[in-house]
Amino acid sequence: MMAAQLLWLGGGNAAVPSGANAFISNEVSYWLVSGVIVAGWAWMLSLFDTRDYRILGSGFEEYRGVFNASLMLAGIVSIFAYLTAFELARGYVLIAFPVGTVALLLSRWIGRQWLVRQRKGGNLQARVLLVGSRYSVLDLNRDLSRREAAGYNVVGACLIDGKSGELDPNSPDFLPGTDVPIGGNPEDLAGSLDAIGADTVVIAGNDVTSTQWLREVGWDLDPDRHFLIVAPGLLDVGGPRIVTRPVAGLPLLHVDSPKFTRMGLLLKRAFDVLVSGLLILVLSPLLVGTAIAVAATSPGGVFFKQERVGYSGNRFTMWKFRSMRADAEEVLKKLQSERRDAGNDILFKMKDDPRITKVGKFIRRYSIDELPQLFNVFGGSMSLVGPRPPLDREVRQYEDHVHRRFMVKPGITGLWQVSGRSNLTWEETVRLDLYYVENWSMAGDFVILFRTARAVVASEGAY
User: Is the pLDDT of residue 124 over 60?
Assistant: First the structure.
């Protein structure tokens, strides 16, 4: 606010003029106005819980809260100024709120980057005791371990369907494939937390033995030192689809069914056409240069085209710059029988694939080989963001539930790309694609595009 005042009004003691019918008859200094708005902004951010420890560092939810709080304040100030004839300078308002909102979002993003680095280094993490059946605890541990940035460090597991006993970090009994010790007593979780030095208990909601037991767990924990989290048996359901409604003391979770409105699909298509067309124009020198490099360094065509399966199971031709030898498909049959160090049972990948040319290795590293797919997007067979476009031979191996990925157009990028690309297992790839399909939003697409740019620059999981 102070910056807006200096930019628009200078450093003097400018005052808001009083209109003939103004509610406030005396002139008011812009310094006072700025101070009041800053105080109101801080109050509005608190009202939207943007400083809650469960929100700080969460990413999209935190940014959305900051944006909504800022938008609400701008609306309140505008309505107040109109109703009271308080003649705020339009330039002051047009500078103050957009610049202030961007500054807030930038500061939150910088703070989140610092927090993520700290958590990945083992600091500022919640020390978690998992409680539930062996299979539920394994699933929870896998999911929490995958997201180090979330700040949950699993240090112990208490099995409801297994043995109870003293929880010891040096215990010979661990969760399979992990270094998480098993032990503790479900009837004394506060003592189990203290024994392992944990501060947070995460209970698999589908393994709760009784509501009375869960209530007693909450009573036994020290509210100043311990935190209780219940993980419901809902997999891969986005936050906007979940609404909690207490009824007769029961926290009922209302889960909306996945749906795609006509307006949402129209907006996505308009965005695809606009951005893909713009990128084709801007990147045309790079496209021409890459085509020349591919043609000059290895025999074969410039482009690699392949039939893929897209929206509603329809086939389409996908275009790429050729990054492999001309006989790559014939060599593939031999390579599929060999042991490889990447990919999975359905998606073939090799870190040192002998079929890739020297130019191909470079353009694959930075995803330049994918750029011709912009023409697929512009033509309507693909989208900028969506599930990975599969081959027909891959589709023949799909389980029934995997076909839900054909509810939307395949994308040049997607959750599968920004979450590891070639490093993912097949199950993880499917899970990410289905999560995208069932929880799609334009805001989510923007986040994926931003993360894609960052992943491409770092060449994460690309080979």
Answer: yes
Task: Measure Cα distances from 371 to 146, 189, 375, 456 in Å.
Answer: 30, 54, 8, 12
Q: How far apart are CA 280 and CA 374, in angstroms?
A: 7
The residue whose two tokens read 């469960």 is 54
Of the options 1.10.540.10, 3.40.50.10190, 3.40.50.620, 1.20.1250.20, the CATH number for the domain spanning 126-233: 3.40.50.620
Please report, as a single letter, which amino acid is at residue 181: P
CB 105 within 8 A of CB 71: no
- Residue 19 is predicted with a pLDDT of 52
Q: What is the pLDDT of residues 201-211, one digit of tens each?
A: 988 876 666 77
Greatest alpha-carbon pair distance for the chain in Å reads 87
- Identify each DSSP E strand in 113-188 by its residue range: 126-132, 152-159
Instruction: Look up residue 50 and give its two tokens.
Output: 């943007």
pTM above 0.85, yes or no: no
Residue 430, CA atoms < 13 Å, CB-side half-sphere: 18
CB atoms under 10 Å from CB of 206, counted, come to 13
In this structure, are residues 145 and 119 in contact, taking their beta carbons and an 8 Å threshold? no
Residue 8 confidence (pLDDT): 47
In this predicted structure, the answer to whether residue 6 has a pLDDT above a threshold of 70 is no
- Provide mean pLDDT across the span 251-277: 83
Between residues 329 and 263, the one the model is more confident about: 263
3-state DSSP assignment of residue 390: coil
Q: Is 97 left (phi over 0), alpha (psi -120 to 50) or beta?
A: alpha
